[in-house]
Amino acid sequence: MSSPDRRPAGFAPGGAAIPSIAVVDDEAATREMVGDYLKLHGFAVILCDGGRSLRAHLADRTPDLIVLDLNMPEEDGLSIVRDLKARTAIPIIMLTATASAIDRVVGLELGADDYLPKPCELRELVARARSVLRRVQAPGATGAPVSPAGPSQEAARRIRFGTKWLELDALRLSDDGGLAQALTRSEFDLLKAFADNPKRALSRERLLDLADARDPDAFDRAIDVRINRIRKKIEPDPGNPRYIRTVRGLGYVFRPDGD
Protein backbone atom coordinates (compact mmCIF):
# COMPACT_ATOMS: atom_id res chain seq x y z
CA MET A 1 0.00 0.00 0.00
CA SER A 2 1.47 3.32 -1.01
CA SER A 3 2.18 5.96 1.63
CA PRO A 4 -0.15 8.99 1.88
CA ASP A 5 0.59 11.95 -0.37
CA ARG A 6 2.12 14.59 1.88
CA ARG A 7 2.07 17.43 -0.65
CA PRO A 8 -0.25 20.39 -0.22
CA ALA A 9 -3.58 20.22 -2.01
CA GLY A 10 -2.60 22.55 -4.86
CA PHE A 11 0.15 24.49 -6.57
CA ALA A 12 0.32 28.08 -7.77
CA PRO A 13 1.10 28.79 -11.45
CA GLY A 14 4.76 29.39 -10.64
CA GLY A 15 5.06 26.00 -8.98
CA ALA A 16 4.86 27.21 -5.39
CA ALA A 17 2.70 25.12 -3.10
CA ILE A 18 -0.67 26.59 -2.09
CA PRO A 19 -1.23 26.15 1.66
CA SER A 20 -4.08 23.75 2.30
CA ILE A 21 -6.54 24.08 5.17
CA ALA A 22 -9.06 21.49 6.34
CA VAL A 23 -12.20 23.13 7.73
CA VAL A 24 -14.04 20.77 10.09
CA ASP A 25 -17.55 21.83 11.13
CA ASP A 26 -20.84 19.93 11.25
CA GLU A 27 -22.81 23.04 10.21
CA ALA A 28 -22.81 23.11 6.42
CA ALA A 29 -23.50 26.85 6.11
CA THR A 30 -20.64 27.78 8.46
CA ARG A 31 -18.30 25.27 6.88
CA GLU A 32 -18.92 26.59 3.39
CA MET A 33 -18.74 30.25 4.44
CA VAL A 34 -15.36 29.76 6.13
CA GLY A 35 -14.12 27.64 3.23
CA ASP A 36 -15.16 30.20 0.61
CA TYR A 37 -13.48 33.03 2.50
CA LEU A 38 -10.22 31.08 2.86
CA LYS A 39 -10.27 30.27 -0.86
CA LEU A 40 -10.70 33.95 -1.66
CA HIS A 41 -7.49 34.61 0.28
CA GLY A 42 -5.38 32.08 -1.57
CA PHE A 43 -5.77 28.83 0.35
CA ALA A 44 -6.67 25.40 -0.93
CA VAL A 45 -9.59 24.20 1.19
CA ILE A 46 -10.92 20.79 2.21
CA LEU A 47 -14.37 20.73 3.83
CA CYS A 48 -15.12 18.02 6.41
CA ASP A 49 -18.36 17.57 8.36
CA GLY A 50 -16.73 15.82 11.32
CA GLY A 51 -13.93 13.65 12.63
CA ARG A 52 -14.74 10.68 10.40
CA SER A 53 -14.51 12.62 7.14
CA LEU A 54 -11.35 14.40 8.37
CA ARG A 55 -9.61 11.10 9.08
CA ALA A 56 -10.68 9.77 5.68
CA HIS A 57 -9.04 12.78 4.09
CA LEU A 58 -5.88 12.43 6.21
CA ALA A 59 -5.48 8.86 4.94
CA ASP A 60 -4.79 10.30 1.47
CA ARG A 61 -3.37 13.75 1.99
CA THR A 62 -2.07 15.88 4.86
CA PRO A 63 -3.28 19.51 5.07
CA ASP A 64 -1.00 22.27 6.27
CA LEU A 65 -3.52 23.41 8.88
CA ILE A 66 -6.82 22.32 10.43
CA VAL A 67 -9.56 24.75 11.47
CA LEU A 68 -11.69 22.75 13.87
CA ASP A 69 -15.06 23.41 15.49
CA LEU A 70 -15.07 22.03 19.03
CA ASN A 71 -18.82 21.60 19.40
CA MET A 72 -19.95 18.79 17.12
CA PRO A 73 -22.52 16.10 17.93
CA GLU A 74 -20.84 13.08 16.32
CA GLU A 75 -17.42 13.52 17.94
CA ASP A 76 -16.42 16.54 19.98
CA GLY A 77 -13.50 18.60 18.79
CA LEU A 78 -11.40 18.04 21.91
CA SER A 79 -11.25 14.29 21.29
CA ILE A 80 -10.20 15.03 17.70
CA VAL A 81 -7.45 17.38 18.94
CA ARG A 82 -6.23 14.72 21.38
CA ASP A 83 -6.13 12.05 18.69
CA LEU A 84 -4.45 14.23 16.05
CA LYS A 85 -1.78 15.63 18.37
CA ALA A 86 -0.90 12.10 19.51
CA ARG A 87 -0.29 11.01 15.89
CA THR A 88 0.61 14.09 13.85
CA ALA A 89 2.24 17.52 14.00
CA ILE A 90 -0.50 19.26 11.98
CA PRO A 91 -1.24 22.67 13.53
CA ILE A 92 -4.80 23.23 14.71
CA ILE A 93 -6.85 26.40 15.18
CA MET A 94 -9.91 25.74 17.34
CA LEU A 95 -13.24 27.50 16.89
CA THR A 96 -15.00 27.64 20.25
CA ALA A 97 -18.23 28.98 21.69
CA THR A 98 -17.49 32.35 23.29
CA ALA A 99 -18.51 31.18 26.76
CA SER A 100 -16.56 27.90 26.75
CA ALA A 101 -13.38 29.05 28.51
CA ILE A 102 -12.82 25.53 29.86
CA ASP A 103 -12.81 24.11 26.33
CA ARG A 104 -10.16 26.64 25.32
CA VAL A 105 -8.00 25.70 28.29
CA VAL A 106 -8.32 21.97 27.66
CA GLY A 107 -7.65 22.46 23.95
CA LEU A 108 -4.44 24.34 24.72
CA GLU A 109 -3.39 21.63 27.16
CA LEU A 110 -3.90 19.03 24.45
CA GLY A 111 -1.61 20.96 22.10
CA ALA A 112 -3.87 23.12 19.93
CA ASP A 113 -1.97 26.03 18.39
CA ASP A 114 -4.55 28.81 18.54
CA TYR A 115 -8.27 29.46 18.90
CA LEU A 116 -10.99 31.92 18.03
CA PRO A 117 -14.46 32.44 19.49
CA LYS A 118 -17.36 31.37 17.31
CA PRO A 119 -18.85 33.04 15.33
CA CYS A 120 -15.39 34.21 14.32
CA GLU A 121 -14.21 37.31 12.50
CA LEU A 122 -13.09 35.81 9.18
CA ARG A 123 -10.38 38.40 8.59
CA GLU A 124 -8.84 37.48 11.94
CA LEU A 125 -9.06 33.79 11.09
CA VAL A 126 -7.06 34.42 7.90
CA ALA A 127 -4.47 36.41 9.87
CA ARG A 128 -4.14 33.67 12.48
CA ALA A 129 -3.89 30.98 9.82
CA ARG A 130 -1.10 32.84 8.06
CA SER A 131 0.72 33.40 11.35
CA VAL A 132 0.61 29.71 12.27
CA LEU A 133 1.67 28.63 8.78
CA ARG A 134 4.61 31.06 8.74
CA ARG A 135 5.96 29.43 11.85
CA VAL A 136 5.53 25.80 10.87
CA GLN A 137 6.74 26.36 7.30
CA ALA A 138 9.72 28.58 8.15
CA PRO A 139 13.13 27.38 6.83
CA GLY A 140 14.50 24.76 9.18
CA ALA A 141 11.20 24.21 10.99
CA THR A 142 11.03 20.60 9.82
CA GLY A 143 14.43 19.84 11.27
CA ALA A 144 16.57 20.47 8.19
CA PRO A 145 20.22 21.24 8.97
CA VAL A 146 20.93 24.88 9.66
CA SER A 147 23.51 26.62 7.48
CA PRO A 148 27.03 26.64 8.95
CA ALA A 149 27.79 29.61 11.15
CA GLY A 150 30.53 30.78 13.42
CA PRO A 151 30.44 29.56 17.03
CA SER A 152 29.34 32.89 18.50
CA GLN A 153 26.56 33.36 15.91
CA GLU A 154 25.30 29.81 16.33
CA ALA A 155 25.33 30.11 20.10
CA ALA A 156 23.36 33.36 19.87
CA ARG A 157 20.61 31.57 17.95
CA ARG A 158 20.26 28.71 20.46
CA ILE A 159 19.04 29.29 23.99
CA ARG A 160 19.37 26.68 26.72
CA PHE A 161 16.09 25.94 28.53
CA GLY A 162 16.73 23.25 31.13
CA THR A 163 17.00 19.92 29.33
CA LYS A 164 16.36 21.42 25.88
CA TRP A 165 17.61 24.00 23.38
CA LEU A 166 15.36 26.63 21.82
CA GLU A 167 16.51 27.05 18.21
CA LEU A 168 15.42 30.52 17.16
CA ASP A 169 16.08 30.17 13.44
CA ALA A 170 14.52 26.72 13.16
CA LEU A 171 11.61 27.73 15.43
CA ARG A 172 11.87 24.49 17.35
CA LEU A 173 12.85 22.89 20.64
CA SER A 174 15.42 20.09 20.61
CA ASP A 175 17.41 17.94 23.01
CA ASP A 176 21.20 17.61 23.19
CA GLY A 177 21.15 15.01 20.43
CA GLY A 178 19.27 17.33 18.06
CA LEU A 179 15.97 15.44 18.32
CA ALA A 180 13.08 17.88 17.94
CA GLN A 181 10.44 18.17 20.65
CA ALA A 182 6.88 18.97 19.56
CA LEU A 183 6.25 22.68 20.11
CA THR A 184 3.18 24.73 19.34
CA ARG A 185 3.26 28.29 18.06
CA SER A 186 2.14 29.72 21.40
CA GLU A 187 4.76 27.70 23.28
CA PHE A 188 7.54 28.97 21.01
CA ASP A 189 6.34 32.55 21.46
CA LEU A 190 6.42 32.20 25.24
CA LEU A 191 9.90 30.64 25.25
CA LYS A 192 11.13 33.42 22.97
CA ALA A 193 9.65 36.01 25.35
CA PHE A 194 11.52 34.40 28.26
CA ALA A 195 14.74 34.17 26.23
CA ASP A 196 14.53 37.89 25.52
CA ASN A 197 13.94 38.70 29.20
CA PRO A 198 16.11 36.35 31.33
CA LYS A 199 16.03 36.77 35.13
CA ARG A 200 13.23 39.31 34.81
CA ALA A 201 9.88 38.71 36.50
CA LEU A 202 7.11 38.97 33.91
CA SER A 203 3.44 39.34 34.73
CA ARG A 204 0.86 37.24 32.95
CA GLU A 205 -0.42 40.33 31.13
CA ARG A 206 3.12 41.16 30.02
CA LEU A 207 3.64 37.62 28.77
CA LEU A 208 0.39 37.78 26.80
CA ASP A 209 1.69 40.97 25.22
CA LEU A 210 5.26 39.77 24.55
CA ALA A 211 4.14 36.40 23.18
CA ASP A 212 1.41 38.03 21.08
CA ALA A 213 -0.96 35.42 22.54
CA ARG A 214 -3.98 37.48 21.49
CA ASP A 215 -6.46 35.60 23.60
CA PRO A 216 -9.85 37.28 23.04
CA ASP A 217 -10.48 37.48 26.80
CA ALA A 218 -6.78 37.56 27.79
CA PHE A 219 -7.56 35.25 30.68
CA ASP A 220 -4.66 34.38 33.00
CA ARG A 221 -5.41 30.67 32.94
CA ALA A 222 -4.32 30.50 29.28
CA ILE A 223 -0.77 31.50 30.25
CA ASP A 224 -0.70 29.08 33.20
CA VAL A 225 -1.78 26.21 30.94
CA ARG A 226 0.98 26.96 28.44
CA ILE A 227 3.63 27.36 31.14
CA ASN A 228 2.69 23.98 32.62
CA ARG A 229 2.92 22.40 29.18
CA ILE A 230 6.34 23.97 28.56
CA ARG A 231 7.63 22.83 31.94
CA LYS A 232 6.82 19.23 31.06
CA LYS A 233 9.12 19.59 28.04
CA ILE A 234 12.11 21.42 29.54
CA GLU A 235 12.22 20.80 33.29
CA PRO A 236 14.05 17.77 34.75
CA ASP A 237 11.28 17.68 37.38
CA PRO A 238 8.19 19.59 36.15
CA GLY A 239 6.62 19.35 39.60
CA ASN A 240 9.54 21.35 41.03
CA PRO A 241 10.50 23.75 38.22
CA ARG A 242 13.95 25.29 38.32
CA TYR A 243 14.16 27.18 35.03
CA ILE A 244 10.74 28.78 34.63
CA ARG A 245 9.83 29.79 38.15
CA THR A 246 6.57 31.12 39.53
CA VAL A 247 6.68 34.59 41.07
CA ARG A 248 3.82 34.66 43.54
CA GLY A 249 1.36 37.47 42.98
CA LEU A 250 2.96 38.43 39.67
CA GLY A 251 3.76 35.79 37.07
CA TYR A 252 6.92 33.96 36.01
CA VAL A 253 10.67 34.36 35.62
CA PHE A 254 13.16 32.48 33.45
CA ARG A 255 16.30 31.44 35.36
CA PRO A 256 18.83 30.23 32.76
CA ASP A 257 21.14 28.76 35.41
CA GLY A 258 18.34 27.01 37.26
CA ASP A 259 19.29 28.63 40.58
* Basic shape: elongated
Neighbour order of strands in the largest sheet? 4-3-5-6-7
CATH class of the largest domain: Alpha Beta
Question: What is the CATH T-level topology of the largest domain?
Answer: Rossmann fold
Q: Tell me, rounded to a whole number, the average pLDDT.
A: 80
SSE arrangement, N to C: EEEHEHEHEHEHHEEEEHEHHEE
- Helix fraction, binned, reads 25-40%
The total of helices stands at 9
Radius of gyration: 19 Å
Structural class: alpha/beta
- Give the second-level CATH assignment, the architecture of the largest domain: 3-Layer(aba) Sandwich
Main sheet characteristics: 5 strands, parallel
The tally of beta strands, per DSSP, is 14
Low-confidence stretches: 1-9, 11-15, 139-156
Roughly how many Å apart are the termini? Answer: 53 Å
Report the β-strand fraction as a percent range.
15-25%
CATH superfamily of the largest domain: Response regulator
Number of domains: 2
